[in-house]
Structure formats: C-alpha cells, structure tokens
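Can't paste images in this forum, so I'm doing it all in text. The chain is below; anyone willing to post the predicted structure tokens underneath?
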Amino acid sequence: MRKLKVLGISGSPRKGNSEYLLRHAMEAAQSVQPEGIECREYSFHRKAMGPCIACGYCEKHGGECSVKDDFAGLRELWLEADVVIYSVPVYHMSMPGQVKCFIDRLGNSLFGRYKHLFPPGEESLPKLMKVIGSIAQGIHISSGQEHTLTDLINHALIMQCVPVTGDMWHSYIGCGGWTSNEIDRSALQNQYENQQFDAIIAVKSARDVGRRAVETCFLLQEGIRARREMLAPDPVYKPLLDRICPA
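Text version of the structure:
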C-alpha cells in the first residue's frame, strides 16, 4: 500500500515561529505510523508567489498559469498530498498575502485542470478530500489567529477537502499561538524551552493538529477504498481514486 503523504506548508516569508510550530506538527504526524507516512515541508521563505490576474489562461490550458513563479511547484506538491498542514503568521488579521495568492490561484488552476472530467457547462472541482490542518501564530494574544484559522478552514471546504482541529481545550478550530509580544524569530522556541505556559500550549496544540490530521486521513481513506466501486462511476471522485487507489 502506498505511503500516506503529508505536506507541511510554512506560510511565513521568513524562517521562524511558524516553521517551529509546523515542525512539531510534522513530528507528531510522522509518529502515528513512521513506516507508513511520508512527510515533506515547504516554506514560503524566498519564494515568489504573485496574485491571480483573472486572465482565464488556466481554463484554456489544462490548469497551467500564465504567471511564471513558484506557484506550479507548490501546486503539484499540494495535489500529491493526502494531508496538508498550514502554519502561518498573522498579517493584518489574516494570512500573509503570498499564501492568499497561492490559494486564489490554486482554485482557478484546478478548475482548469479537471474541467475535462465533466460535461460542458457542468464543470466542477472534484472531491479531493485531503485532510487539512491549520496553525496560526501572532505576536499578540488576540491579533487575528482565529480569523486566520477560519480563512484556512473555508479554503479547505471550498477545495472539497476535510478540515480538522486538534483537541479541546487547546484547539477549538486549529492551533492558535502567540509570542507574548516578542518579535524574535525564535521567540516560541525559547519560550517553550523555558517552559512558558502559553508556548507549551501552542506546541501541544500544533502536535495535536498534526496527529489528528493523519489519524483522520487514515480513517477516511479506509472508507474510500471500501466504497471504491460505488464511487468510481462519478467523475467527481476520479482524481481522489487515482491518488489513493492507483491501478
């Protein structure tokens, strides 16, 4: 059986606290079944990710984008993954612009890629059913973490995927952490190593998100394999079945 593929995306343009929480989540994900999981991390650090210009190019060219930057590489990693874990800093009460640019372009690109599966006029996004976990951290205690997590949950739903959280009370809708007003890139790591309570909770929550995302995906895929014959006639499930039930 193929290994479960977990993609961790650090959505910060710099290396630091988001990457630190992501690595805790990825370690916890890998620990669920070390021999059966393949983890890969992607960082927005030094990546170019321009905005969607709504040119319609992707609709006519199989989902390929007219803007040539780092988008296509991340799109392919995203498509290959069974689990996607986002870890992002809070910028102006939401995710960084680079991550939003990727998400905007991803939806349009995949409409173009998969439109051939459907009759003309009935094009849709297929049921990709990836499991998506979200982590958000900011400098201040209430600076948009929950709003950012909600944006990522909405992204998961729009992309026909399954959002998950960690465990209550630490994680209501995802992992939300803060650096206690410290701007240092290693603030959370230092605070965690010094056993600061809020940092401990952020790390625990991140690890819960990683673990629960993988557990949910294993359960989900077992059900999909068991019902493969029922799902196969509907083109909306074809990319999903091609990914997890290759011939």
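The chain has a mean pLDDT of 96. The first strand starts at residue 4 and ends at 10.
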